[in-house]
Amino acid sequence: EVQVVESGGGLVKPGGSVRLSCAASGFTFSSYSMNWVRQAPGKGLEWVSCIGGRSNYIYYADSVKGRFTVSRDNAKNSLYLQMNSLRPDDTAVYYCARDRSEADASGNYVNHFDSWGQGTLVTVSS
Amino acid sequence: DIQMTQSPSSLSASVGDRVTITCRASQSISGYLNWYQQKPGKAPNLLIFAASSLQNGVPSRFSGSGSGTDFTLTISSLHPEDFATYYCQQSYTTLYTFGQGTKLEIK
Question: Would you state the pLDDT for residue A105?
Fold first, then answer.
């Protein structure tokens, strides 16, 4: 069974740092890109970052670029998000999600997030 | 970045109703459009990918259509468990973006 489980959230002061982890199981981790998605309390989903299966590419949303760093350790089947210079508006549940590329009826490969963790809450407050 | 706009933002309907949610992209995204369902306190769940392909295990009352900039998610006959928030997402670029969500409530 495919499973991803986040950890590392908690209460952090503005300007502080925290490192989130995502433990994956049930699939060949290195074969999949992985993403972080966040959701502020009562708000919608916001994509945060994507990392290729071999860390061969990395992308960030503008809202976190320069402050957050995504990484992975394929030997440990783990994904990480280092979050620095945290602000109150970074308060959110952070989800990790597996990125699967699958062909549509026309043979075009379309990426989508087919497995999600339960999320870990990061609260930035003094 | 590509902006995704859903309408309506909220919708009241009854069990058995047919419901349609619309998603519009700020530029053409071909068929690179996915739909997710999220229930309170839970992670999102993939319903449809590539605009119209039903994810394994998702009931056939869910369907998607569209291409380019305009897309729809249709639930043919609402079941009680379908009351949730629905999000579209573009994957035309890896700077993925979601719509703001449509909350489907019981009338």
Answer: 83
